[in-house]
Automatic annotation (TrEMBL):
Protein residues bound to ATP: 11-19, 138-142
Species for this entry: Paenibacillus herberti
GO molecular function, one term: deoxynucleoside kinase activity
UniProt-listed Gene3D superfamilies: P-loop containing nucleotide triphosphate hydrolases
Protein family membership: Belongs to the DCK/DGK family.
Span of the signal peptide: none
Organism taxonomic ancestry: Bacteria, Bacillati, Bacillota, Bacilli, Bacillales
Name assigned to this protein: Deoxynucleoside kinase
Length: 208
């Protein structure tokens, strides 16, 4: 690893990223960097009209994550401390390639690379995969009002986009370890044994 362990939990909407990242932060006594959701002024509008609001939303996420990396991640890694986050900044590109079109997509991609290419990236990714039915159930259970408008088509596309993105990341960055978790079957919330197995695999990676 070229810097202190920087762990990211990833997966499509509702996969359980924040839940697992928080549990691991507690268990491993690591500082947690969490996505800012409630203060996002565009999510509500975006889910009602994606074409109209996607550029504002993607730029907002990008700027927010860039600032979090600057303020909360880089200082820790510079001091040689490990950190865990419930996202990888690469998710900006996963979503934006799906939600933006034409010239806006090109411009966004350019800005993404300018802002992030020289930033430290997670060297361990826990990728939670889950099927559409599981994600829909968890999103409904969580009950965020603005997510009631999420379409099954959009979610299904994101599931596939995530699979493709993780495959491409593994090819481009072979030094990044990706642990894939089958979120349909592995229940780290209800089953302490399942959580224990994840902790064991993470500790193994950290000791290498
Ligand atoms: N393994 C699990 N079994 C059952 N419920 C779960 C599991 N993991 C998460 N949940 C529940 O599913 C909902 C979504 O989880 P969470 O908020 O952690 O997902 P997320 O991937 O961080 O979502 P988002 O993409 O919106 O940030 C929450 O209500 C959480 O309690
Ligand atoms: N379009 C888009 N781009 C992103 O980078 C992004 N990151 C998260 N989200 C959505 C998923 C959840 O509803 C909610 C909380 O994760 O925000 C995103 N949506």
């Amino acid at each position: 690893m070229n810097h202190a362990p920087y762990i990211a939990v990833e997966g499509p909407i509702g996969a359980g990223k924040t839940t697992l990242a928080s549990m691991l932060a507690d268990e491993l006594q690591l500082p947690l960097v969490k996505e800012i959701v409630e203060e996002n002024p565009f999510l509500d509008k975006f889910y009602q009209d994606m074409d109209d609001w996607s550029f504002q939303l993607e730029m907002f996420f990008l700027c927010n994550r860039y600032k979090q990396l600057e303020d909360a991640v880089i200082p820790k890694l510079t001091q040689g401390q490990s950190i865990i986050s419930d996202y990888h900044i690469y998710k900006n590109l996963i979503f934006s390639e799906r939600t933006l079109k034409g010239i806006k997509r090109d411009k966004y991609r350019h800005i993404y690379h300018v802002l992030t290419d020289d930033l430290p990236k997670p060297n361990l990714i826990l990728y939670i995969r889950a099927d559409l039915e599981v994600l829909l159930e968890r999103i409904a259970k969580r009950g965020r009002s603005f997510e009631e408008d999420i379409s099954a088509d959009y979610l299904q596309q994101l599931i596939q986009d995530y699979d493709a993105a993780m495959t491409s990341l593994a090819e481009r960055e072979p030094s990044t370890t990706i642990i894939t978790i089958n979120g349909n079957e592995v229940d780290f919330v209800a089953n302490p044994e399942h959580f224990g197995q994840i902790v064991h695999r993470v500790k193994e990676c950290l000791s290498q």
